[in-house]
Specification:
Blueprint (H helix, E strand, L loop, with lengths): L1 H11 L17 H13 L3 H30 L2 H4 L5 H10 L3 H13 L9 H10 L4 H13 L3 H13 L9 H15 L3 H12 L13 H12 L4 H6 L8 H13 L3 H26 L8 H9 L2 H9 L2 H14 L3 H14 L3 H13 L2
Helix pairs in contact: 1-6, 2-3, 3-8, 8-9, 8-10, 9-10, 10-11, 11-14, 14-15, 15-16, 15-18, 16-19, 18-19, 19-20
């Protein structure tokens, strides 16, 4: 029942939190301990949280090992071996033999991955099951505890373990949290090459970026538009990039490249960060007002300023800094007219007084 319980939990976790504490010895699923550890973590009881996460990790490993041992033995029976390696054939024989425990183990696996995931190979499934004794969610949370306690090297080690076991995450998108944490720890440890490496891992899933050495056709088209227009308006009107999960990576990589004086790379990451930001802000306004249609950048800024909820989000995500950085890099790359246009729009309409004032100052310095 372990896999079934975990699958249900991950689906419902956003709506339901396991809030009742139970003695550790009374739980039967690792996620019970994991959730108790989360509660302790949120209450800043880090020692207790660490203990619970480690217990969850060990319980998960023990349970998976037991399942593997049982299934391995069940598959060694002569009748089962005679069925071959195809999962449907083996499953039918197990059912015929009334080996319900083996069937139940397989059913729990199929809730996570169908037979096609293993190319319908029972030996491939068995190998996957053997490797699945890792618990990346626990490793990640242990890393968070060590980070808060200032033990950065230990924290990085557990983040790395979580990343290496990402195939077994119950929520696959959690891999982005792990990468961002690895990048942050690398920065704190002053390991800037590693920080860049981890952030670039996020961009490997972004086809618009291309690679560090080769721009994608879309990115080349974006740059061409910027170069050949006197304002940024056509750029913001023409291109939409729905990848807000990568926005932080673009922001932080821009900072890294600026410090390293790699201005061409900084320009590309700043450009894509600005496009993601405009896309997200425009889409968010549409959710608030289904009649909204993007008309121009100044109108977008004015509308954002009238919505306190969206405005608060822009502060937490450094949205205004994204646009200011983009303007700075336009200017540095020689696109002075376009930079001035963006500075002017930010100075006149940016809802953040601080960034509006800074844009106004930079605009005055360009003349």
């Amino acid at each position: 029942m372990k896999k079934l319980a975990i699958t249900c939990f991950t689906i419902l976790i956003s709506a339901f939190l396991y809030a009742q504490r139970m003695p550790a010895e009374s739980v039967e699923y690792p996620w019970h301990l994991l959730e108790q550890g989360r509660i302790a973590y949120e209450e800043r009881e880090f020692g207790q949280a660490l203990l619970l996460f480690r217990e969850a990790r060990e319980m998960h490993k023990t349970q998976v090992q037991a399942q593997y041992d049982y299934l391995f033995s069940a598959l060694k029976v002569h009748q089962v071996r005679a069925a071959g390696d195809l999962i449907p054939d083996v499953y039918r024989v197990l059912e015929k033999r009334q080996d319900y425990e083996a069937c139940a183990i397989l059913d729990r696996i199929f809730l996570v991955h169908p037979p096609a995931y293993f190319d319908k190979s029972m030996s491939a499934l068995l190998e996957w099951l053997k490797k699945s004794d890792v618990y990346p969610e626990c490793d990640y949370l242990i890393g968070k505890v060590y980070e808060l306690e200032g033990e950065l090297t230990q924290s990085r080690r557990f983040y790395q373990l979580a990343w290496e076991a990402r195939e077994f995450l119950y929520i696959p998108d959690m891999r982005f949290e792990i990468i961002y944490s690895l990048a942050q720890i690398s920065g704190l440890l002053k390991q800037y090459d590693d920080q860049e490496k981890y952030l670039l891992l996020i961009l490997t899933e972004d086809s618009v970026y291309g690679t560090t050495n080769a721009e994608s056709p879309t990115l080349r088209a974006m740059i061409h538009t910027i170069k050949n227009e006197q304002t940024v308006e056509k750029f913001f009107s023409l291109y939409r990039h729905h990848n807000d999960i990568a926005l932080r990576a673009y922001i932080e990589l821009t900072d890294i490249y600026l410090r390293a004086e790699e201005y061409d790379r900084a320009f590309r990451t700043a450009l894509l960060g600005a496009d993601i930001a405009v896309t997200y802000l425009s889409d968010t306004l549409k959710k608030v007002d289904f009649m909204y249609r993007y008309s121009d950048f100044s109108d977008l800024l004015l509308r954002i300023g009238m919505n306190s909820e969206i405005l608060q989000w822009t502060e937490t995500k450094q949205i205004w800094n994204v646009f200011l950085q983009f303007a700075d890099l336009l200017y540095r790359q020689g696109f002075v007219v376009q930079a001035n246009d963006l500075y002017y729009k930010l100075a006149e309409n940016c809802p953040s007084f601080t960034y509006a004032k800074e844009a106004s100052y930079k605009l005055s310095q360009t003349f």
